[in-house]
Amino acid sequence: MKELIKDDNNFNDSITTLGKSLGATQLGFSDITILPENKRMGFIYGITIIVRLSEGILNQIEDEPTQTYFSHYRSVNRLIDQISLRISLFLEEQGYPSIAIPASQSVSDPDDAFTGAFQHKTGAVLSGLGWIGRSALFIHENYGPRVRMGTVLTNAPFQVGIPVTQSSCGSCRSCVTVCPAMAIEGRLWKLGTPRNELYDAFRCSQYMKDVFQHIGRGAVCGLCMVACPVGKK
Ligand code: SF4
Ligand code: SF4
Question: Are 92 and 43 within 8 A, CB to CB?
Answer without folding.
Answer: no
